[in-house]
Specification:
The protein is of the alpha+beta class. The chain is built from three helices and four strands. Strands 2-3-1-4 form a four-stranded antiparallel sheet. The chain is globular, with a radius of gyration of 13 Å. The termini are far apart. The model has no long low-confidence stretch (mean pLDDT about 90).
Length: about 90
Amino acid sequence: MVTAIVFISADVESIPDVAQRIADLDGVSEVYSVTGAIDLIAMVRVHSLDDVARTVADQLNKVPGVNQTETHIAFRAYSSLDLESAFSLGAQ
């Protein structure tokens, strides 16, 4: 399994629509709206580097409203936390 973290700059007025369209792509497991220099972060989890290229270059980059992407390939994961519970802070 290959994990890629994709930083996405998008048209500000269409961020929710862009995020949903990206989230609907095969290989994209999550999309986060974030603060800072970028607008969205997408987590891509696929079987091979070729699949990363297909997902990012052939699909994600072509979503209307996406202006620029920067892709980072993860080579090792470290975690002792339940990420789902960490991102549901305040949820009842």
